[in-house]
Amino acid sequence: MTGPAGEPTNQPVPPAEEAEAVEAADGARAASALRRAWALVVVPLGAVILAMLVGSIVILASQVFIGVEIDPTLPLVAYWAMISGGLGSFNGIVETMVQATPLVLAGLAVGVGFKAGLFNIGAQGQFLMGALAAAYVGGQLRDQPALVAVSLAVAAGAFGGLVYGFIPGALKALTGAHEVVTTIMLNFVAISISSYFVSGPLRAPRSPFAQTLDVGNAELIVLFGRNGHVGIFFALLAVPIIWWLLWRAKLGFEIRTVGANPDAARFAGMRPRRLIALTMALCGMLAGLAGSGEILGRVGHLTAPYATNVGFDAITVALLGRANPVGILFSALLLGMMKAGAGQMQIQAGIPVEIVDVIQGLILLFLAAEIIVRRLFRIREARVGLEELATVTRSYGERSA
Amino acid sequence: MFLYDIPLLGLLFQFGGYVISILPTTGPIFLFAAAPIALGSLCGLMNERSGIVNIGIEGMMLTSAFVSAYAASLMVASGATVGGDAPFGASTPLIVGVLAAMIAGMLVSSLHAWLTITIRTDQIISGTIINITALGLTSYLNQILSKASPPNAGTFQPFIVPADIVELPVIGWFINAILNQRPITLSIIVLVIAMQILLFRSRWGLRTRAVGEHPKAAETVGIDVIRLRYRNVILGGIFAGLAGASLALESAGSFQNNMTVGRGFIALAALIFGRWTPLGAFGAAILFTASEALERSIRFVPPPGQLGEIMIGIPLQVYGALPYLITIVVLAGFVGRSTAPAAVGQPYERERRH
């Protein structure tokens, strides 16, 4: 859809007009880039708007359930409370960023998988394994110098996730077991593993609850606000690094080729199986980082059970961000804002925080049923979707390997 | 018991003895706990045998559980009587609850069908949407509704097996364990056998399997692939609905946030472990439940002797993780391979007629 509008032409241009032409070409190029960017964000944006609209219908309809007189302004009051809770104060903005941090990393864990044609539902398990490893190493090194303790605990978390991501990747590469099923199963196995360690060998002595030792010196430093820990920068750094990896590095090129067309990749001399295992390990590492950030930066220890929905949130973030690192960053911030502001919404408008999950599901619904968004907002067909995904679910029934 | 003293093999006998000793207490709850899982598997079976992945069973079950509890509670609030002498302790609110759950299951399945068949959206994403939205919406509504503390419709009661049968030697307790159940749990036996016969012995079954394996070929011989897939996916919702109703109206008596706690995913595992057959999935559901029951028994009454030492040494969490681990093993083909119907996951596009 973006024609060669901004491409420089080969025709000789008189010197007097040259500068003007270059300027015009620049302008056209900028306009075309803008159009392209607009085409990328318009459907996610429309999906978010529609989800908020339907969410407000849910809020209104639920008043009928409890027999209260319908107050048509309630959704506005609720959304306003949520937005001002997440963005209205310095602490609110910090909380938004803190909430968004694991979502960015776990979102990348799902998004990078999409690029390779893999549907990583296992971010939850990889997150948990990363959290467990970070909590263990952090707890052991709690009296060591902070620099040593932090870096080793973070590395352990990343490694824990990496191993746990590598397992389904290797299983797919070696046996063809579909990663969707294996990662779902491994999520539950991860719960059992962490529950065993947290309530057994790693349980903090003399603690009335099943939890690990506090990480002490391995705690991530709070840089600003109440809890703006340094882990926020892991997430902010991961975005350009993953972007560079996907679009500038050889590995990223291979990942994207395998995702778009595994056969072509094989003919081009790449090794899809090795790449699948490698990509899943990379995804696991990102999710594991998210887990260690939560333990070392926010909670200080791992509990059993550890309540988190990060795996599903990550899928929403990755799909809303169209598996693009920058898109994932913004989607995570949006979701983080909702989570940060949900408490204030519950207090001020009496709307249970669970409405955030409803809106999240609706966003996904409208993303999936893109056609509704296009009709309503009169957007013309634009092929900027997740083409990689086309191959993901198709292979579910294939007798591969 | 000299058998127990044989090295290694003796452990096996000890294990057998232990299982027999705990059966009278755990046996009756086997079927009860396995029923929602098996019903969820049947829902998945209807989808996957016709070529649609369904990882949204969890969300379908959760929605149905909420709707059934809410509908039953509404009936009680509007003055319907609860209790009475009807078989299974059935009352109008409970029956309405079950019907509402079946309808809710079909409605959620319709969404899945529309997204995957008509819109041709990714089937796993569709399931994810259902899971996220169902968890959010039911928790949200439950939070709002529970403020008014709605009336409770109670639960179905187990079938009372006549004393003459229970007292039969050897098989009496076994018959009692199977039949002394609540109605939806009992129905699973009939449903599994019926589905097994229908899937492998009926015209509908042949067509469904054809559509799941090779839709193009099925279309060539005159099967309407789109319509059959729609019908199967939507009807599959009935099973998810029954599973949800069983959780809400047979065990808990009310709705609690996220009350399915992963049973929809265990159902998916059972379906895979059972190689996409009704009987296999049912067997897998029983096996998975047994693993859970074993964990509970060991915690309360550990086996004596050598076996006990070993079993107490094994972390209890192993039993919880076992269903998922053996599903991975089976899927990976380390021990007896299990493969999905060939066309599962591929959206079907009808070829244009000239």
Can you characterise this structure?
The complex is a heterodimer of chains A (401) and B (354). Helices cover 70% and strands 1% of the residues of chain A. Chain A has 401 residues and is an all-alpha fold. Chain A has a domain of 253 residues: ABC transporter involved in vitamin B12 uptake, BtuC (Orthogonal Bundle), CATH 1.10.3470. Chain A has a two-stranded antiparallel ribbon with strand order 1-2. In chain A, helix 1 packs across helix 13, helix 2 packs across helix 3 and helix 4 crosses helix 10. Chain A is globular. The N terminus of chain A is likely disordered. Helix content of chain B is 69%, strand content 0%. Chain B has a single domain, classed as Orthogonal Bundle (ABC transporter involved in vitamin B12 uptake, BtuC), CATH 1.10.3470. Chain B is built from 14 helices and no strands. Chain B is mainly alpha-helical and 354 residues long. In chain B, helix 1 packs parallel to helix 6, helix 1 packs across helix 11 and helix 2 packs parallel to helix 4. The interface between A and B is large, with 55 and 55 residues.
The rough form of chain A would be described as globular
N-to-C series of helices and strands of chain B: HHHHHHHHHHHHHH
Main β sheet profile of chain A: 2 strands, antiparallel
CATH class of the domain at 85-337 in chain A: Mainly Alpha
Structural class of chain B: mainly alpha
End-to-end distance of chain A, in Å? 38 Å
Provide the low-confidence segments of chain B as ranges. Answer: none
Helix content of chain B: 55-70%
CATH architecture of the domain at 85-337 in chain A: Orthogonal Bundle
Strand proportion of chain A, as a percent range, falls in under 5%
Element string of chain A (H = helix, E = strand): HHHHHHEEHHHHHHHH
Report the C-alpha radius of gyration of chain A, rounded: 23 Å
Q: Within the CATH hierarchy, at the fold level, what is the topology of the domain at 85-337 in chain A?
A: ABC transporter involved in vitamin B12 uptake, BtuC
Number of strands of chain B: 0
